[in-house]
User: Fold these one by one.
Assistant:
Number 1:
Amino acid sequence: MTNKEKYQRTFSVLHASEFDLEETAMNKRKGIRISKRITAVCASAAIVAAMSIGAYATDIGGIQKKVNIWLHGEQTEAVVDIKQSEDMTEYELKYTDESGEEKEIHGGGVVIDGFGGQRALTEEELMEHIGSGQPTLEHGDDGSVWVYYKDYKENITDKLNENGCGECEIEFDDAIIYVNIDPNGDETISTTPKN
């Protein structure tokens, strides 16, 4: 058997009618057009989605989270909006009080190192502070002065003088709270953890 016969026998199984080169080339070109169109549509959708997210982030002005915090001796659901800059991290806490009225609390902070340098709080540090149940001082419409710490609340009016000034110390299982209200109206409330 010659080489020519071997080739003929090997390729005799294939028939020229099974291959239409013109049709295959045409299908490839259509596929390229379709994929370019799909790519263009997907890119347009991605741009619109990115613009929407950018507009939303600009609208809220920072990072918003739902948190459960201690307010007035009770666990309260609130939304905290965090705004960070190089110098300071600020927050706005919005909640609904027991009468259904919308309330806001504003705050912020920095970290000062041992050498006097300062930096803005990180989001994690700020959230830890907000969630830790810091003591607060509140003046009632009737002239009373209240201290709130986690699920504890106490009227300390009788521990102050007739002008609403004075110092007091409240002891808890995990901390000691110091309150100082001076005649100028300056108030200080601080916590020292117990060891």
Note: DSSP finds three helices and eleven strands in the chain.
Number 2:
Amino acid sequence: MSQKTLGEFEEVVLLIVAILDGDAYSVGIIAEIEERLERSVSLGAIQTVLKRLEKKGLLKSAFGEATNERGGKRKRLYEVTAEGRKIMDRTRMQRNSLWEAVPRFSFNF
């Protein structure tokens, strides 16, 4: 069985969806990334990654209620699946392990 892997941008989007906890939709994800990471992201890039993460089984989506502010259109809301949570935990452990392996003197300039 091959393990699923995350690209850097996929990891960021997965984390932002988790942060938004039930209110994650494409425009909101973009706003959160821009605010937290000071990084510009296109709507097309977000939609592509959201579809890819959903295809991998790491996210699931459903339409929310129609709102007047959106002219009656419904938002597609995303949430992290159990499989997504597992890969987030594994990725975090891997990154922490790598950081802990860096000798302290490596950063003395």
Note: The chain has four helices and two strands.
